[in-house]
Design brief:
With about 110 residues, the chain is α+β, with helices and mostly antiparallel strands. Helices cover about 30% and strands about 20% of the residues. It has a 6-stranded antiparallel β-sheet with strand order 2-3-4-5-1-6. About 25% of the residues are buried. The model has no long low-confidence stretch (mean pLDDT about 90).
Length: about 110
Protein backbone atom coordinates (compact mmCIF):
# COMPACT_ATOMS: atom_id res chain seq x y z
CA UNK A 1 0.00 0.00 0.00
CA UNK A 2 1.43 3.39 -1.02
CA UNK A 3 1.64 6.17 1.54
CA UNK A 4 0.50 9.62 0.41
CA UNK A 5 3.30 11.97 1.48
CA UNK A 6 1.73 15.10 0.00
CA UNK A 7 0.91 17.87 2.49
CA UNK A 8 -2.76 18.30 3.40
CA UNK A 9 -4.82 20.95 1.66
CA UNK A 10 -4.74 23.83 4.12
CA UNK A 11 -6.20 27.30 4.41
CA UNK A 12 -4.25 28.98 7.22
CA UNK A 13 -4.97 32.36 8.81
CA UNK A 14 -2.24 34.96 8.64
CA UNK A 15 -4.41 38.06 9.25
CA UNK A 16 -6.10 36.88 12.44
CA UNK A 17 -9.20 37.80 14.29
CA UNK A 18 -11.04 34.71 15.53
CA UNK A 19 -9.25 31.39 15.78
CA UNK A 20 -11.86 29.72 17.97
CA UNK A 21 -12.40 26.14 16.86
CA UNK A 22 -16.02 25.70 15.82
CA UNK A 23 -16.61 29.42 15.13
CA UNK A 24 -18.53 28.93 11.87
CA UNK A 25 -21.60 30.46 10.20
CA UNK A 26 -24.87 28.95 11.45
CA UNK A 27 -25.80 27.51 8.04
CA UNK A 28 -22.57 25.48 7.99
CA UNK A 29 -23.07 24.35 11.59
CA UNK A 30 -26.46 22.94 10.53
CA UNK A 31 -25.09 21.39 7.32
CA UNK A 32 -22.39 19.25 8.94
CA UNK A 33 -22.13 16.74 11.77
CA UNK A 34 -19.39 18.08 14.05
CA UNK A 35 -17.24 15.56 15.88
CA UNK A 36 -13.76 15.40 17.44
CA UNK A 37 -13.02 11.85 16.19
CA UNK A 38 -10.51 11.05 13.49
CA UNK A 39 -7.63 13.36 14.32
CA UNK A 40 -6.70 16.71 15.79
CA UNK A 41 -9.21 19.52 15.62
CA UNK A 42 -12.95 19.48 15.09
CA UNK A 43 -14.13 17.31 12.19
CA UNK A 44 -16.97 18.44 9.91
CA UNK A 45 -18.68 15.32 8.54
CA UNK A 46 -21.39 15.10 5.87
CA UNK A 47 -23.23 12.67 8.19
CA UNK A 48 -22.85 10.79 11.46
CA UNK A 49 -21.95 7.53 9.70
CA UNK A 50 -19.38 9.02 7.29
CA UNK A 51 -15.84 7.87 8.15
CA UNK A 52 -13.82 10.79 6.75
CA UNK A 53 -14.37 14.44 7.61
CA UNK A 54 -15.01 16.84 4.74
CA UNK A 55 -12.62 19.16 6.59
CA UNK A 56 -11.07 19.70 10.01
CA UNK A 57 -10.99 22.93 12.02
CA UNK A 58 -7.80 23.44 14.02
CA UNK A 59 -8.53 27.03 15.06
CA UNK A 60 -5.98 28.95 13.00
CA UNK A 61 -6.21 26.59 10.02
CA UNK A 62 -8.80 24.60 8.09
CA UNK A 63 -7.64 21.32 6.56
CA UNK A 64 -9.29 19.11 3.96
CA UNK A 65 -8.24 16.01 2.00
CA UNK A 66 -10.43 17.24 -0.89
CA UNK A 67 -10.19 19.77 -3.69
CA UNK A 68 -13.98 19.91 -3.95
CA UNK A 69 -15.19 23.44 -4.84
CA UNK A 70 -18.15 23.17 -2.42
CA UNK A 71 -15.87 22.34 0.51
CA UNK A 72 -13.51 25.14 -0.52
CA UNK A 73 -16.45 27.59 -0.57
CA UNK A 74 -17.29 26.49 2.97
CA UNK A 75 -13.69 27.00 4.09
CA UNK A 76 -13.62 30.51 2.63
CA UNK A 77 -17.00 31.27 4.24
CA UNK A 78 -15.56 30.28 7.62
CA UNK A 79 -12.46 32.43 7.03
CA UNK A 80 -14.68 35.40 6.13
CA UNK A 81 -16.93 34.75 9.16
CA UNK A 82 -13.88 34.75 11.43
CA UNK A 83 -12.58 37.99 9.95
CA UNK A 84 -9.41 36.51 8.48
CA UNK A 85 -8.00 39.19 6.18
CA UNK A 86 -5.15 37.08 4.78
CA UNK A 87 -4.74 33.37 4.37
CA UNK A 88 -1.95 31.08 3.22
CA UNK A 89 -2.87 28.16 0.97
CA UNK A 90 -0.90 24.94 0.84
CA UNK A 91 -1.51 21.49 -0.55
CA UNK A 92 -2.37 20.10 -3.97
CA UNK A 93 -2.07 22.50 -6.92
CA UNK A 94 -5.74 21.99 -7.86
CA UNK A 95 -6.80 22.87 -4.29
CA UNK A 96 -4.66 26.03 -4.22
CA UNK A 97 -5.92 27.13 -7.63
CA UNK A 98 -9.59 26.54 -6.81
CA UNK A 99 -9.28 28.21 -3.39
CA UNK A 100 -7.55 31.24 -4.91
CA UNK A 101 -10.26 31.59 -7.59
CA UNK A 102 -13.09 31.29 -5.06
CA UNK A 103 -11.48 33.69 -2.59
CA UNK A 104 -10.85 36.29 -5.32
CA UNK A 105 -14.46 36.02 -6.51
CA UNK A 106 -15.75 36.63 -2.99
Amino acid sequence: MAVDASPPNTLKATGLRSTATGDVPDDLRRRYYLDGRGGPGLGFYAGATIATAAFRDRGDRLITPRSDPNVIRHLTAIARHRGWTKVTLSGAPEFRREAWLIARAE
